[in-house]
Recover the amino acids of this structure.
């Protein structure tokens, strides 16, 4: 498939299987080859000076990177995709491509905590000022914009607490003032939320999660449209960013099964979330696909699906009770990241990472990632864990 073709000619699952591969280019093999290389040689000095040829240096692209970038461009509906070594690297590239010294950034208060540290550390040192805003502000964000506001960052649902933002309203207000919209779209993936269709200029994703899907790769990507496509490409080249060929191959392999895996994650997570809603030990479940979730109407309007990540607030209890709940789980690993085949759980406290809004749960909060195990086994594991929590509270 030719890169840069933004209109889907097939359904999304067909696109996942066909995009970014051409058996005629791969000696008939279904999967593109893994090309490992740095140096590219030219036949003559004239060819070298004119940079004739498809490739010039390994860092600047290879058949393997082209295959993954072309496939992701089809999925995103964008003009350009750059590959980077991690999701946080994708966030950094997206922001550095849209901001300069003296600029002002509006950052959603529910953002992934390492992104906040990037803003309050490196970006501040580079002369970029960041203000945090309420994720539910919608078009009223225009009241927080300054003459030098050059980017508005959204992440929907919010990290840890899963608030859904009105991305089209925010994008409309930002564009009216000449600011770019940058989005962390890792939770939904472009399969369930095609960010550029909703006014996002630069979409960043941690492919470490669902693109890889097997907890064995660190990779990210930045997708851009319009004027921001060249800005991202230039910043990517200036920073010398590149991804190893084996990681690109794992990303390509994961891409082919992304649709069927996400469907299973979604169905199992919703079953677990609805079961948790019925438990007396649970005060509330934070999952935008649940009908009683505060963000459900916006989620239903804009998203075509949900992944396996959500959170719950427990009835009041001690730290020791939380440890009893989590330490005894058999099928849920206690680990960061998510998006792999395995189920995970972490305790968290979002109060310390809010500055523009107040987060005040009445009990401990737990984030769950529902993997590909039999959902009945996961529910039984959580059932025993909640019983331990109740006994220890």
């Amino acid at each position: 498939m030719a890169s840069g073709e933004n209109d889907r000619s097939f359904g999304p699952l067909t696109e996942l299987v066909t995009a970014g591969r051409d058996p005629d280019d791969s000696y008939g093999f279904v999967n593109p080859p893994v090309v490992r290389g740095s140096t590219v040689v030219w036949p003559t000095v004239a060819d070298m000076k004119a940079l004739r040829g498809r490739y010039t240096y390994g860092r600047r692209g290879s058949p393997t990177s082209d295959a993954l970038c072309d496939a992701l461009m089809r999925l995103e509906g964008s003009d350009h995709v750059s590959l980077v070594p991690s999701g946080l690297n994708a966030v950094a590239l997206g922001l550095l491509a849209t901001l300069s010294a003296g600029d002002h950034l509006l950052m959603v208060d529910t953002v992934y905590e390492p992104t906040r540290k990037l803003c309050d550390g490196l970006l501040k040192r580079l002369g970029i000022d960041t203000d945090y805003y309420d994720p539910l502000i919608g078009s009223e964000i225009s009241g927080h914009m300054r003459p030098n506001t050059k980017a508005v960052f959204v992440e929907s649902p919010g990290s840890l607490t899963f608030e859904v933002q009105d991305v089209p309203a925010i994008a409309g207000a930002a564009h009216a003032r000449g600011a770019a919209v940058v989005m962390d779209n890792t939770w939904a993936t472009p399969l369930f939320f095609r960010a550029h269709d909703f006014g996002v200029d630069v979409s960043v994703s941690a492919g470490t999660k669902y693109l890889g899907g097997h907890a064995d790769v660190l990779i990210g990507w930045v997708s851009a449209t319009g004027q921001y496509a060249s800005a991202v490409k230039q910043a990517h080249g200036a920073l010398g960013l590149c991804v190893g060929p084996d990681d690109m191959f794992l990303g390509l392999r994961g891409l082919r099964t992304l649709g069927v895996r996400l469907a299973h994650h979604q169905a199992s997570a919703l079953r677990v979330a609805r079961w948790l809603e019925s438990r007396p030990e649970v005060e509330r479940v934070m999952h935008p696909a649940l009908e009683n979730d505060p963000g459900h109407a916006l989620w239903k309007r804009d998203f075509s699906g949900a992944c396996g990540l959500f959170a719950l607030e427990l009835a009041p209890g001690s730290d020791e009770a939380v440890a009893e709940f989590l330490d005894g789980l058999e099928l849920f690993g206690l680990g960061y990241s998510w998006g792999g085949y395995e189920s995970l759980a972490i305790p968290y406290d979002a109060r310390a990472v809010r500055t523009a809004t107040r987060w005040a749960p009445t009990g401990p909060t737990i984030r769950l990632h529902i993997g590909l195990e039999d959902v009945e086994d996961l529910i039984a594991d959580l059932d025993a864990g909640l019983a331990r929590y109740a006994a220890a509270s």
